[in-house]
Amino acid sequence: xxxxSLEPNRRRGRARSSGSETRLPDQKPFKQPRxxxxxxxxxxxxxxxxxxxxxxKILSDYGMDFLDPDARELMKKSGAKIEDQRVRFDPEMVxxxxxxxxxxxxxxxxxxxxxxNIGGDWMAFGSVASTPNFIGLDGVRHAGTRKDFQxxxxxxxxxxxxxxxxxxxxxxxxxHASIRxxxxxxxxxxxxxxxxxxxxxxxxxxxxxxxxCRIARQVDDETLDREPSVFSIIxxxxxxxxxxxxxxxxxxxxxxxxxxxxxxxxxxGAMAPITLAGALAQQNAEALAGMVFTQVVRPGAPVAYGGxxxxxxxxxxxxxxxxxxxxxxxxxxxxxxxxxxxxxxxSNVCAANALDAQAAYESVFSLWGAVQGGVNFVMxxxxxxxxxxxxxxxxxxxxxxxxSMVAAYLEPIVVDEATLAHEAIGQxxxxxxxxxxxHTQDRFRDAFxxxxxxxxxxxxxxxxxxxxxxxxxxxxxAQTWLAAYRTPEIDEKALAELKAFVSRRxxxxxxxxxx
Amino acid sequence: xxxxSLEPNRRRGRARSSGSETRLPDQKPFKQPRxxxxxxxxxxxxxxxxxxxxxxKILSDYGMDFLDPDARELMKKSGAKIEDQRVRFDPEMVxxxxxxxxxxxxxxxxxxxxxxNIGGDWMAFGSVASTPNFIGLDGVRHAGTRKDFQxxxxxxxxxxxxxxxxxxxxxxxxxHASIRxxxxxxxxxxxxxxxxxxxxxxxxxxxxxxxxCRIARQVDDETLDREPSVFSIIxxxxxxxxxxxxxxxxxxxxxxxxxxxxxxxxxxGAMAPITLAGALAQQNAEALAGMVFTQVVRPGAPVAYGGxxxxxxxxxxxxxxxxxxxxxxxxxxxxxxxxxxxxxxxSNVCAANALDAQAAYESVFSLWGAVQGGVNFVMxxxxxxxxxxxxxxxxxxxxxxxxSMVAAYLEPIVVDEATLAHEAIGQxxxxxxxxxxxHTQDRFRDAFxxxxxxxxxxxxxxxxxxxxxxxxxxxxxAQTWLAAYRTPEIDEKALAELKAFVSRRxxxxxxxxxx
Lengths: 515, 515
Fold this sequence. Notes:
2 copies of one chain form a homodimer.
Chain A: H1 45-61, E1 64-66, H2 69-77, E2 81-83, E3 86-88, H3 91-97, E4 104-107, E5 116-119, E6 124-125, E7 133-135, E8 141-143, H4 146-158, H5 180-191, H6 203-217, H7 221-226, E9 231-234, E10 241-242, H8 244-255, E11 259-262, E12 267-268, H9 276-297, E13 303-306, E14 310-312, E15 319-320, H10 324-339, E16 344-347, H11 357-372, E17 377-379, E18 384-385, E19 390-392, H12 393-409, H13 417-420, H14 422-428, H15 438-441, H16 459-464, H17 470-484, H18 492-507
Parallel strand pairs in A: 1-10, 6-17, 7-19, 9-11, 11-13, 12-14, 13-16, 16-17
Antiparallel strand pairs in A: 1-3, 2-3, 4-5, 7-8, 14-15, 18-19
Helix pairs in contact in A: 1-9, 4-5, 4-17, 5-6, 5-18, 6-8, 6-18, 8-9, 10-11, 11-12, 12-17
């Protein structure tokens, strides 16, 4: 399927086609979970303040390298001290400038039903992003292609627990880098109707993607300017550096009121101090610098605080995820983001090579860190393996189940007269059982979360069934759900304009790739 | 190995033997984790109060069946209303009686270094207990034997993260029921030097086990009476019933100031209402009734509140663990226990048949519920599979790693001048790396938690290594650590007296098994 041959089936939206979907497991409707419990504080208020102050001192003593001259010029006008590429920040300026960061905003999807609230107690879960490799149902790891990319998009679209596209769910290296952003954004906007990400890899790419979002939503520039419709992850090149495409991405998007998520890549022991407090201080310094720059570009521009601090295996240098260090820094990151009253981004990550117990426990520990850390925006929610070096269809299925369980955990226990069940308890009495009573009968269908993967059969039945493991189940489920995918409805005019845009920009040769 | 042939190697305590242990992965010293973060409240204070009041109303309107006449007689003297087997509790009496429950106490092990603090912010992790079946390294599931039991004891002893023996890590059905408690307690007290559990299965068993604990500790009855040295899990036969052996267990142990852990077995939809609020109200009613009875037997007797509410698969009736329902009730149980200022018991449980992703995610979700619920006492910490129907050596290894990671997560982030690393950050500067700096060199050996199982090699090296999964690793590690087991040192007099006790009681025929 290429952008030219794509014919989204406009008459078979999921609501209307019931045939092949009746055999699918139930899923809950699209809905953002909310964090109704108090996030866990792994740092005392004093410790949090120490890290905050340490990061201000980093920014004022050492500063950050801003590799883009336009960005430095803007910072200079805002009173920062510039010396060569180095930008030093006065603490008061930092605190004053970030005051305009909004604490909550929307991320508009082309389907308004999939527009998201970012911030407050809202959570949103995204798919995997940015891996170079892919493992499909044949189990063979290979460099990602557009076909793999599209397989993953189908899963992102079909599952209601996936609230947005985190980026390219795998890098499609068979698309030339000059036009990759155009073709992929076409796929993202037509094969899914959920919110999308744009890689900041040079000003023109940001402009192309933003224009495609505008077309897909069929709104004018003024509306786009009021309604953030795309986000970009801005990774600092830790330690203490923001490179040109990242700075340009902020300039392009913040100036247009689009969403920037600043995420320092601070692996403790490698690109950041080996001590968690030091890694967090550096993470915070880099995040603050990025946040300041968004507000310098445009006060009030939407920006989120990303926490990605983890540790490396000090023997091999390999990055590790879902570790006890990761959990604590994920929670500490949430505390820092809330200190600055901005939304918080974390991730569902693991370092496992195989879809085994390790993949599961590292992912759940990551989610534990994110969720108890009060996360708003979960990147890499479904499908991430091997420290981000490959995406997996089967891991996608596993993660969908994990995130669905997290969402169910976040549903409050309803406490009222009916649920307290005083009458039913009396009816059953000592030594009885509750299967048969009306109180149970009225509720048994929807009382509990139903996982896709968990096999709760007794051992004998399970053995007779061939002793399937979670891997067997995820493979079957991936096939089932891929088959259930339907291209979402799209406005005909939007589709025609998108195609025309792709055609024109591709014929123009896309963008230069030698920046 | 029988109790007769056992010759604990008294001169090869772990501290002295270094030869074969040098190849073992590091482990941290024996140490109880502490909960330094605020537990998660899944219920508001009002909701908590509603559940509390609902449970008092259950106890006053319906009461509990106490199947033992002596227990009923004691309750009658304490002002409860008795009608046939039914005991009804006045709310004021409940609240007044439980006031004497201690909020913190010790569980003495025969090795004083393994004596535990129960309550407050202390945590203790136990091994698996009470499963009928076993899966060893051959992968074949079979009914438990003493040999299997002993294999599991070796792992319980060798790992420092296992703080106590939760019970029989598998039921050794080749030991006759009349003498099983004697032979197993001998094994528990000689093959490990950690605290032990006693099954309440008739008064004489409690007495035998308590006497063996006294002998092992070489203390007199008065000391035993001051120093709790054994615990018993008391499960109510939900709904609303306490059977004879359980009530006798409380009478035997509470009267001797030994530890009772009341754990209602309230599976929502089966033995308890299908609504979580109702299941919790019933759990709480049963827990309060048991707590009351301990204090009627002896005011001030140590007692803990056990939460075990989960849900069943409403299609098959199969119990489920580590579900979103389980997580929330685990946390709510902690809130209830803290309301009554008693220690809280929860578990590390799963329903998986295979050691796959399901086993891992259900266990980590269980631990998430327990830990964020402010658990003090974790039963079934290592080795539990299949909803408690089999113990697994490999799962034991996995759980040791999971619990070690939880313990590492609970270690506070140290925030001070050295860890904030201002100097090191300046030294490295923008674009540098931290591998080489002194700040890293001084700390790289112990900076991060080192898991046993997680494989962080790059994909190519991992493939060349045979693509091992976590299962491969756990199998190897089980062999390694079993080989590293050394019988802990034991006082010669204690050992001789224990042997004499076993010999005498076995020759007497143990206990009647037709109760």
